[in-house]
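Exercise 7.
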Amino acid sequence: MSHAHATDDAARWEDMWADGTCPEATSVHPYLATETAGLTPGTAIDAGCGGGREAIALAERGWQVTGIDVSPSALALARRRAADAHVEIDWLHADLSTWAPAAPAGLVTTFYAHPPGSHLDFYRRLAGWVAPGGTLLIVGHLHRGDHDHTGHDDTEPPEETTATAGQIVALLPPDEWRIDTALETSRTITDSAGHERELHDVVVRATRLR
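Solution. The predicted structure, written as tokens, is:
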């Protein structure tokens, strides 16, 4: 991944967050609650936190959260939301392809992040941030090779921007990781224009053994 590529990608995301055209869910991602329900709160990193909904939800449950994003405008929105929710979160403006935490975290999450370059390289990098005994939670878009037949064909993510559950699991050596969840699933949402559409998701949760 070239520096120019990363810079161009950061500018694109900043433009979308700044002008309000970045697609964003209107609520916390449903997999956050189901996949972290049994975890004891500790330190957490939300990689590609966007407007901060998931980071705030974790902080409300007692996690000490660091939310990281490449867009200053997304982080400004996240700070306002955190202030409204009366929670403290460490918000960082950083390039996730080069940034790394000073210490591993008990939970590392990412929801629909779109890094420049390979998603698998990105997920491998996130796995390295998890402390022994900690949890990695990856939720991403899944390319299914078909289209949304409601006329919104642009809702199908490009194949190169997704990874399958099997591909993600293969990144995690079985002597170092226990796979707790590996799903490819679908759900129906209502977009900002009021149209119902189906999202195809990949969800992988794993516990670092050592």
